[in-house]
Specification:
three-stranded mixed beta sheet; 39% helix
């Protein structure tokens, strides 16, 4: 029988609601760790650290520290345009102050900017074209279908296919 102090993974299971942060941290820590982010909090909290205006044009990619050090690293940031890259160069002292204030020590000493498109997460999806006002000609034959549920499903399918 197992000692009361040493619990197996089956005995540590919780029942009921569990915060998603606990299991997701176990999954994301190795991925973020490869890029120098300890746990990924910098990536997750990026808009709160630098502000929503800067965060909407940037994305932190990784931190490189000097050998055997965890201070004065170089943070690589992806910037969506050359014009905003110039703005980032002017804002660098302020951004470094905010990042280091977030960590509580001088974790980042400089920014390295890389231009390129940002992922489109967070942007609203493109508007869909309006449904045609008159039904497509193929839907005229739906009157022959006796089952009302099947007729409704086929009509929706026909309209969706007509939209393209």
């Amino acid at each position: 029988m197992a000692d009361a102090k040493t619990k197996t993974s089956d005995e540590r299971r919780t029942h009921g609601l569990v915060s998603i942060a606990v299991p997701s941290d176990r999954v994301t820590r190795p991925v973020f760790g490869r890029h120098g982010f300890a746990g990924g909090t910098l990536v997750v909290d990026w808009p709160a650290i630098v502000g929503s205006a800067v965060a909407s044009h940037t994305l932190p990619l990784g931190i490189k520290f000097p050998p055997k050090e965890r201070t004065e690293g170089t943070l690589t940031v992806k910037v969506d345009s050359g014009a905003f890259a110039l703005e980032m160069q002017h804002l660098e002292p302020l951004i470094l102050e905010r990042i280091n204030g977030y960590f509580g020590w001088k974790a980042v000493a400089r920014l390295k900017l890389r231009q390129g498109p940002l992922p489109e997460s967070g942007k609203p999806p493109a508007a869909r074209p309006a449904a045609p006002s008159s039904p497509p000609p193929a839907l005229d034959r739906l009157a022959q279908v006796e089952d009302p549920e099947l007729r409704d499903v086929l009509e929706r399918l026909g309209r969706r296919l007509a939209q393209g």
